[in-house]
Structures are given as C-alpha cells and as structure tokens.
Design goal:
By secondary structure, the chain is an all-alpha fold. It has helices at residues 2-10, 26-30, 32-36, 47-77, 81-105, 110-120, 129-137, 153-164, 168-178, 200-211, 217-248, 260-266, 273-281. Helix content is 63%, strand content 0%. The protein starts with a helix and ends with a helix.
Length: 282
C-alpha cells in the first residue's frame, strides 16, 4: 500500500529542478549566504540575535520604503497620480509590517536587554540613516539630524538628498497649484527646513477637493493616500515608544537621547496638518 502511494505523493514536485550546480538557485538570487552571515552578536547572550535580526529586518523594510517613496515623489511631480497611489499604498503596508515587528522585540524582557545593552555602546536606532531619510522624505526635516551621518559619505548622501529635495507633501502641494488652486507662491519654493504649520491656501485647496470629490477625484484619492501614510507612520512611532518603555522604562537611550521622553515628543509631530484640519472644516 505504501509503495503504491509513493508515486502519487511525489507527483506534485517530481518535475522540479533539483540540480543547481550550474544554475542560479533561490539562495543565490537572494544572496542569502551574505544576509544570513550578517549577524555578529558581541555578547554570549542568546537574546542578542533577536535584537540584531529585528533591526536588520526593519532596515530591509525601510530600504523598500525609501524606494517606494522616491517612486511616489517622481510620480506626483510628473502628474502620474495612479502610479503614486500604488507606491504610497505600498508604503503604508510596509509600515504595518514594521509595527508588527515591534511585537517580536517586545518578547525581550528588561533583564534580558540589560544583559546585552553594554555591548551596544553608543549605537542606537536614532542613528538609522534610512529612518532619517524616510522622515525627511515625509517632510519632518531638522538640519541638525544630518550630522550623525557626516562620517560616512554614502549614508550622508542619502540623508542629504532627502533633506534638500521637496518632500512628499511638498510635491502634493505643488500638484494642487498645477491644478489651478490658489496656493501661496512662497510655499512652492520654501527652504527645506522651513517651519511647517497649517497654511490657509493649502487648507482651502484641500477643503475644496473634499467638498467636490467627483470633480477632483484623483486629488481626493491622493489626499486619502497621504492620510493613510501618516496614520501608519503614527502607529509605527507609537508602537516604538511603547516597546521601548516596556523594555527599558525611562532610561536614557544608548545614543544619548532622553529615550521614551524623546520618543513621546515625536508622537506630536504632524506631517500633513491641513489634511487633518479639513476633517473639522467639513
């Protein structure tokens, strides 16, 4: 009975390629040997591998997020809004993955983290050049935060470009102007680190879009995609601060920040203020 069943059992994969001596395999394509050899714990504590993998995986997701953000920026700049919607939707889904990742790190107890913390020295997620570039691309720019990356030209170039170029919201506002809305001209070429606050001309434009969605449906959809991105970003930051508080309480961060106190202040940052204000105005 067993012998007769074997061919049927094998039938689902018997035509699969099994010899990769001369051809590219799955591991080859993904460069898995280098990726899986990139974890180098400095302590003997088994929990350090979790800490390293958590942050490396997050950086990979951020790598993709930056790629999608840059695509969205280009698409809005070129008035290809459907392509921008695809990219921004993907950005929001990536942030969901990053939110969920904190749940894995939250399995690390304060005692376990205290064992590996001395080995981190001054390294900190605060120094993530990809996170900083994402934040800059979304419009929360602070010139002082370029400095931690000055020692590495390649990383500095990524952060500096994100700082110098128009943000995602800047491009959306420029798109409104191209569509004929009376946007204050000063907003179309403002300094990268100019103070961000609610601007009456932008608020009026978005209010018109929301009151006439059939007339401005692509702009209406752009607005909702941006709100999705900011909501996902808020959840990511909130999950970060709660995980940090759960593990280290109110200790200072390894990078010298105030830790939870600093992260809580970041929760108050609003990226697209007029899009939130319009909900009150309608």
């Amino acid at each position: 009975m067993t012998d007769r069943a074997a061919p049927a059992k094998d039938a689902a994969w018997h035509e699969a390629k099994l010899d990769f001596a001369k051809d590219m395999s799955y591991a080859d394509y993904l460069d898995l040997d280098r990726i899986l050899a990139a974890q180098h714990p400095l302590s003997h504590d088994p929990n350090e591998l979790l800490f390293i993998v958590q942050h490396q995986v997050s950086e990979l997701w951020m790598r993709l997020m930056l790629h999608e953000l840059e695509g969205a920026l280009a698409a809005i700049r070129e008035d290809r809004l459907p392509q921008a919607f695809k990219a921004t939707a993907r950005v929001s889904r990536i942030m969901e993955q990053l939110v969920n990742a904190w749940s894995v790190l939250a399995t690390m107890t304060p005692s376990e983290y205290s064992t590996i913390r001395p080995y981190l020295a001054n390294s900190s997620g605060f120094q993530s050049f990809q996170y900083r570039a994402i934040e800059f691309r979304l419009g929360n720019k602070n010139r002082a935060l370029i400095r931690p990356h000055a020692h590495d030209p390649a990383r500095l170039a990524v952060v500096q470009a994100a700082f110098d170029e128009p943000s995602l919201y800047d491009e959306a506002i420029r798109c409104l102007a191209r569509r004929g809305f009376a946007i204050d001209p000063a907003l179309l070429d403002r300094a990268p680190d100019a103070e961000r606050r609610e601007e009456p001309s932008v608020a009026a434009a978005w209010t018109a879009v929301y009151r006439n969605p059939d007339t401005y449906f692509d702009l209406y959809e752009l607005a909702e995609e941006l709100v999705d991105v900011e909501e996902a970003f808020r959840l990511w930051r909130f999950r970060h601060v709660t995980t940090v508080e759960r593990i280290i309480g109110f200790k200072r961060g390894t990078g010298g920040t105030a830790g939870v106190s600093y992260l809580r202040k970041m929760l108050d940052v609003v990226l697209f203020p007029e899009l939130w204000r319009v909900r009150t105005e309608l």
